[in-house]
Amino acid sequence: MKVILPGAAIGLLGGGENSRMFALAGERMGYRVHAFPTESAGDLDRIRKFAAEVDVVTVVSGDVSVIALQAAAGSGTLYPPMKTFEAVENGVGTKRDFSKAVFADFSIIGARGINGECVFYDPIAIDRVDGVLDIARSPAPIGSKLARKAINLTRDVLEDLDVTGIACVEFTLSESYELTIHDVTPHPHSSGNVTADSCVTSQFEQQLRAICGLPFGSTQMLSPTAMAVLPAAGESDWVAALTLPEVKLHLGGRYLTATAPSGTRAKQIVRAARASLSAK
């Protein structure tokens, strides 16, 4: 197993907030993170050259085409490997019917290393509006037995897909307590952004550790945390939102987070903070 030590060059395909968060984690640990912008992802010769000049290439968002990934994998080391993306592209899980009421939606963020070792974060509850993530909170109120079952299923998915890095497995829990996988994301997921404030090690640092062959960081929860997505446009009264001392503003990613003694209380705080925003 090749270990990629600090000082090495990490290639990052794609842009957005996830790329920025990954780059910050990498730079903090002493890696040189080189990003290849999404708008240039059609230039396959440049991607091949880019992949050949770094120690490993990874992806932290879903805005990179399969063709671009194939070009990177053909010239360098890509994690997760190409077969992971191809398997996800061909469909994993059962499509979620957002018109149908369910008891709960939640995700499990897991990481799998080059040697097959896995670590998992506590379940993250997901609230959606029109099928789009609105609020996420950790830990999800689903009980330890169900959480263990979901984690075991997530482990199976990571092993079956041969994931190296972070992956998010989304679950639907029916009113009859039937557990169904409805989506797999082979890179950091928006619901996992809570780990940056709630856990010892964020999903972004864990991704870096996984692809570099380093020991995993602790997934221990420091405090229950919730995040609320902000409106996509318009200025707001940020002072009003930040009047609540538990709130942190992540304006680059358009969301608020709050830590509290419980996930339920953290959710109440981010809802109140978001509601306090008034368009200027």
Describe the protein.
By secondary structure, the chain is of the alpha+beta class. Among the domains are: 9-89, Rossmann fold (3-Layer(aba) Sandwich), CATH 3.40.50.20; 225-275, no CATH class. Helix content is 31%, strand content 25%. The chain is built from nine helices and 13 strands. The chain has helices at 17-28, 44-52, 66-75, 82-89, 144-160, 195-198, 203-212, 238-242, 263-275; strands at residues 9-13, 32-36, 56-59, 78-79, 104-112, 118-120, 124-129, 132-138, 165-173, 179-185, 225-229, 247-250, 255-259. The strands form two sheets. Strands 5, 6, 7, 8, 9, 10, 11, 12 and 13 form a nine-stranded antiparallel β-sheet that branches. Strand 7 and strand 8 form a beta hairpin. The longest helix is centred in the middle third of the chain and has 17 residues, at 144-160.
Can you describe this structure in just a few lines?
It is built from nine helices and 13 strands.
List strands and helices in order, with pairings.
Blueprint: E1 9-13, H1 17-28, E2 32-36, H2 44-52, E3 56-59, H3 66-75, E4 78-79, H4 82-89, E5 104-112, E6 118-120, E7 124-129, E8 132-138, H5 144-160, E9 165-173, E10 179-185, H6 195-198, H7 203-212, E11 225-229, H8 238-242, E12 247-250, E13 255-259, H9 263-275
Parallel strand pairs: 1-2, 1-3, 3-4
Antiparallel strand pairs: 5-6, 5-7, 5-9, 7-8, 8-11, 9-10, 11-13, 12-13
